[in-house]
């Protein structure tokens, strides 16, 4: 990728020699003979790099560096001088200069310095692209839900994201999307461009969890041959997401409490106090209040984490979301697997809506992915769904023979078939965002038939 570079030097021979070499390498070169001219060109052209002489007529190179950094802090600036001006070099580095070349220098030395500078620019682009991609994938607007409880929870989460020092505790069953919500909060916060680091507290034994979180010094334990920065240090300025925090041991809980209250900790085997600025998001599928009552979780840590509590309902408690989520996952895997599925057959949709989903969204995602791998393209049919979905429907039919009855003081009264069908049509219309063509396809009827049914039934008001 070609970059543009501004060269500011009052010696014409130096400008000409450097520019010739850089142009041969494919650089776009901008030239100026004074600080004032260089600042004017920079304001107009916004080059990615600048090569500045320290000694210039009028505005000197250090002042030019200062003003360039004020306009565009990300610009990579390399200083150069014919004198061994250590004090100026130190001042320039403090102001954000990338490097300092002492004249006379070989063009190969300059090329090596600029090569390192372009590597850093490329890394910045990759990091920026990664952050922008993550912002898109975890944007709150992409969350599929028609459930009022979930909607209200998301509104609280959006507000909490803006308060980027506030700790958040996300609760919900396994597979409900606690990690996805934590990422959405991070990428909607002012810390979005900084690291988001995650640690599953249930996946590591206590000793390893402590060393991963806080790091260690050489000699802290048998295999500690060199210093290791912990997750907290590496996440400085960003967010730490601690999943399944209910599994954390009391000794690690005490150290974590200090981080939350003071922003400080010690590495294992260390004596130097380390200061960090991190936003903490914790998640658990356990009842932490009960854990506090049992004495297995610190009460003070619980209240310190639970500043903004967020609860994600289980999928079976938000049945209106099941079909929309399934259709959204079909679109997702169409892109990922390069397929062209159109949706679900009515029979498959019915099985998916009525299943209990003990594994929540994670289980639904796995079911859709597997069906799309095994099934021919088109609508996913019920035969390609796991047996447990069909078995579950049959078991419900056997266990709850009165589920289609309305119990009254006078006995059991059957609901009519029309009422059952109307209720199902309502679910499908809600799931498809009132798209009648898509709803008709899922119901296995012609759109005209659906329109007639909607006009005929008074109970089928517009969703």
Low-confidence stretches: 397-415
Percent helix among the residues? Answer: 40-55%
Supply the CATH superfamily name of the largest domain.
P-loop containing nucleotide triphosphate hydrolases
Per the CATH scheme, the topology name of the largest domain is: Rossmann fold
Task: Write out the strand line-up for the largest beta sheet, numbering strands in chain order.
Answer: 2-1-3-4-5
Q: Which structural class fits the helix and strand makeup?
A: alpha/beta
Amino- and carboxy-terminal Cα gap: 52 Å
Count of domain modules:
3
Give the overall average pLDDT. 84
If classified by CATH, what would the architecture of the largest domain be? Answer: 3-Layer(aba) Sandwich
Q: Outline, from the CA principal axes?
A: extended
Radius of gyration based on Cα positions:
31 Å
List how many beta strands DSSP finds.
18
Query: Under the CATH scheme, which class of the largest domain?
Result: Alpha Beta
Write the layout of secondary structure elements.
Elements: E1 4-8, H1 12-24, E2 28-32, H2 35-45, E3 49-53, H3 61-71, E4 76-81, H4 86-94, E5 99-102, H5 107-137, H6 148-162, E6 168-171, H7 178-187, E7 196-200, H8 206-214, E8 215-216, E9 228-229, H9 231-234, E10 239-243, H10 250-262, E11 264-265, E12 274-275, E13 279-284, H11 288-294, H12 299-305, E14 308-311, H13 322-337, E15 343-344, H14 346-354, H15 360-374, E16 379-380, H16 387-399, E17 405-408, E18 411-414, H17 417-431, H18 436-443, H19 447-456
Parallel strand pairs: 1-2, 1-3, 3-4, 4-5, 6-13, 6-14, 7-10, 10-13, 15-16
Antiparallel strand pairs: 8-9, 11-12, 17-18
């Amino acid at each position: 990728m070609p970059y543009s570079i501004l060269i500011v030097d009052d010696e014409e021979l130096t400008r000409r020699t450097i520019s010739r070499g850089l142009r041969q390498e494919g650089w776009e070169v901008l030239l100026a003979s004074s600080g004032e001219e260089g600042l004017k060109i920079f304001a107009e052209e916004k080059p990615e790099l600048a090569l500045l002489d320290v000694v210039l007529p009028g505005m000197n190179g250090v002042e030019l560096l200062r003003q360039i950094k004020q306009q565009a802090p990300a610009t990579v600036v390399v200083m150069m001088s014919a004198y061994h001006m250590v004090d100026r070099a130190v001042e320039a580095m403090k102001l954000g200069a990338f490097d300092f070349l002492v004249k006379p220098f070989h063009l190969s030395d300059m090329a090596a310095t600029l090569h390192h500078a372009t590597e850093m620019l490329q890394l910045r682009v990759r990091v920026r692209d990664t952050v922008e991609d993550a912002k898109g994938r975890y944007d709150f607007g992409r969350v599929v839900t028609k459930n009022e409880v979930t909607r209200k929870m998301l509104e609280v989460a959006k507000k909490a994201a803006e308060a980027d020092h506030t700790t958040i505790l996300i609760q919900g069953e396994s597979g409900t999307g606690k990690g996805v919500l934590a990422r959405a909060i991070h990428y909607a916060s002012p810390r979005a461009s900084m690291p988001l680091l995650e640690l599953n507290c249930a996946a590591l034994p206590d000793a390893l969890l402590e060393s991963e979180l806080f790091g260690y010094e050489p000699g802290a334990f048998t295999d500690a041959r060199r210093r290791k920065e912990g997750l907290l240090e590496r996440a400085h300025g960003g967010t730490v997401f601690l999943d399944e925090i209910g599994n954390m041991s009391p000794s690690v809980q005490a150290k974590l409490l200090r981080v939350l209250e003071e922003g400080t900790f010690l590495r294992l085997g260390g004596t130097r106090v380390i200061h960090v600025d991190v936003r903490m998001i914790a998640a658990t599928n356990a009842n932490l209040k009960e854990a506090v009552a049992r004495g297995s979780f610190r009460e003070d840590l619980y209240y310190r984490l639970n500043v903004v509590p967020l609860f994600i309902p289980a999928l079976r408690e938000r049945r209106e979301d099941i079909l929309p989520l399934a259709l959204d996952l079909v679109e997702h895997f169409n892109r990922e697997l390069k397929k062209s599925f159109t949706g679900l057959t009515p029979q498959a949709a019915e099985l998916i809506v009525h299943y209990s989903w003990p594994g929540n969204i994670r289980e639904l995602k796995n079911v859709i992915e597997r069906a799309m791998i095994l099934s021919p393209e088109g609508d996913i049919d019920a035969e390609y769904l796991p047996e447990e979905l069909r078995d579950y429907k049959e078991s419900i039919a056997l266990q709850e023979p009165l589920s289609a009855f309305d119990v009254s003081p006078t006995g059991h009264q059957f609901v009519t078939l029309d009422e059952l069908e109307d209720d199902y049509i309502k679910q499908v219309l809600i799931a498809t965002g009132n798209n009648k063509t898509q709803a008709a396809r899922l119901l296995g009827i012609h759109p005209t038939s659906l329109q007639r049914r909607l006009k005929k039934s008074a109970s089928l008001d517009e969703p």
